Amino acid sequence: MAGYGQTYIDFNESVFDEILNSAGVRAMCRGAAEKALAAARSNAPVDTGAYRDGLAVETVQHEHRTTYMVVGHDPKTMLVESQTGNLTKALKAAKS
């Protein structure tokens, strides 16, 4: 309970759950992840192509919303990322 001069806000969690899980919000988040994936693939260093081809968008379900992550499935993904920072650069490019 708020004391004198303090504000107390009681959020309706179900309204936020409904908004965050709506088709529009999911599509917007998925679109941002796809944009980052496209940037990561276009700037990926290519030796055999396995790193670039192993990049994908994965859905992650949280308690109140769904998020999307760009991940690498190639065994040498961590090595490539440590040397190039490709995914970090792709995420920064996707913000623009």
TrEMBL record:
InterPro entries found in the cross-reference section: HK97-gp10_tail
> Which Pfam families is this protein grouped with?
HK97-gp10_like (PF04883)
Name of the protein in its database record? HK97 gp10 family phage protein
Species whose genome carries this gene? Bifidobacterium platyrrhinorum
